[in-house]
Amino acid sequence: MATVSRALNKNGYVSEEARKKVETAIKDLKYYPNEVARSLFQKTSKMIGLLLPDISNPYFPLLMKGIEESARANGYSVILGNVEEGSDLGENYMTLFAQQNVAGVLSAVEGTLSHEHAMPIVMLDRVLEEDDFAVYTNDVKGGKLAAQAVMDRDPGNVLIIAGPKSVPGAIDRLIGILSVLNPTDVKYQIYETNSYTIEEAEETAKNIFMKYKRINSVIASNDLYALAVMKEAQQKGLHIPRDIQVIGYDDIPFSQLVYPGLTTISQPAFKLGYQAADLLVSRIRKNKVEEKRIKLDPKLILRDSLREKTESEEK
Amino acid sequence: MATVSRALNKNGYVSEEARKKVETAIKDLKYYPNEVARSLFQKTSKMIGLLLPDISNPYFPLLMKGIEESARANGYSVILGNVEEGSDLGENYMTLFAQQNVAGVLSAVEGTLSHEHAMPIVMLDRVLEEDDFAVYTNDVKGGKLAAQAVMDRDPGNVLIIAGPKSVPGAIDRLIGILSVLNPTDVKYQIYETNSYTIEEAEETAKNIFMKYKRINSVIASNDLYALAVMKEAQQKGLHIPRDIQVIGYDDIPFSQLVYPGLTTISQPAFKLGYQAADLLVSRIRKNKVEEKRIKLDPKLILRDSLREKTESEEK
DNA sequence: GAAACGTGTGTAACCGATTACACATATAAT
DNA sequence: ATTATATGTGTAATCGGTTACACACGTTTC
What we know:
Chain A has helices at about 1-10, 15-30, 35-40, 60-75, 90-100, 140-150, 170-180, 200-210, 225-235, 270-285; strands at about 45-50, 75-80, 105, 120-125, 135, 160, 190, 215-220, 245, 265, 295, 300.
């Protein structure tokens, strides 16, 4: 019995003969160890908790896929936790994860506190406190990229649709955008939204066309909003990108399936998930981690929703 | 100790006084029971396994959300398992789930066999054997709905993009479509695809415009393909729906964000997930289940990618 | 030849809950 | 008064693994 355990875990002394016996017995009996019993004794498990603010957000599938692949490659499984934005379910889930002896937690939820239950946490694209581990995209740069792309293309009147300021990433993007626009004499306006839901995106698209008369460029807080604006514009008979150009953020898979193709800033969702899970596993294994923070660079994905680049930007 | 356990689980005799003491102690010590220890003894747990063929499919987020909500409402958490279509990871995951003492499994993967490990399984939108529990949509009806919508609107030459015949649902849809088209003298052609990936969707869209000259209506196997066709058509200068009308399948959230809005058949993904989790929990609790199979009806979602309805359909 | 060491195996304690069972007390029935 | 019944609590076994420890044996080392 102890010998079997030693054979399975390859620690301690086991004779070649005994190991063989164990191996054949395992095959014969189709034995597989009970992870629950293991977990009880070890006070940890082969599972990591995943806390997401709203799974139905189209940005998440790729993220999850990255997480799942990396976790599986390292021998871990993922417990799913979906939290409505704003609810305090996050706490409940953290307790639940603790009750399940999870080895660590990946979280994209604001209020996740790591101190109550002592589990390693890696934040996904949201950073709360200075000493947290996190994998995230450089949103300031993303904002700059988007703004610059617009600036290079005869911007006219610019409308910035900014995400909820409760979301740190949204703030950074805005900072990036403004850092490019402010030094110029481009006219811009900012419209702030409260969520990333499709419903609000549609509503916003309608509103902005009523509220602002002459808009020539839209920098949207994400692809959902960009898509909604494009649809509304086309419905109003405006030509994209001639009359109004729009740029999104995220590069969700659909952005390439609309007409005209949406130019956007690509967030490496899969990679982010993959690296976050890797980082978490390193922490769990107490490997020395090179960096507590991994910053990934967003990328401009040029499609057809922006006008042609203007050669000179002189006044 | 035993009394504490009885107080927590509300079975056996516990004096009012003792119960109070336990309650305050729990609060004072911030005690929460270890689910792993529970699970070890009970040989089951508060977790269900979820097996999906490809999380990045846009149809799944809503499905997962439904599952997660229902599971949570019943006190269960979800372990995620992502399986590449065609790989034999499904088996591995089933073993892994068994090792974790999961209470049951929800699966949307073909080869999931329920016999090796005795856990209740509920199939999601795929049915393998006659005696399985399953929640699925009536795809024959969905096919009929789509075909009828097209027939009502001056079909012209119809192109049917059919999903992989390895997917039972795809077959049913085709059956439904043909059951409507065959009795008429409408001209149609069938183009069969191999997957539900975006890449193949784009490729297919390009191919069909090369291969078939005059197509007036497209019945796509899902929204991805429909969107890809719409984009390609618009790129070629065709007007939707005047020159070519298209109908999708799934009603993924983006279908309402494109221009023109995609008319499609709505699969109640959220509801399906929710009910599947409910059914599974019932099985787990050994409640008497009214029906082993729950068939949900798809619905026609009219938007703007089909032409106006023709009044009379006389020849 | 005795002590030290390396190798291999088995026994028993442990992880944190649940629950069968024994036991104590109070109340009801005979 | 005696026996049954209801109520409450504590002890110990159990779930299925891991591992500290004791022990046995063979080989070096001095």
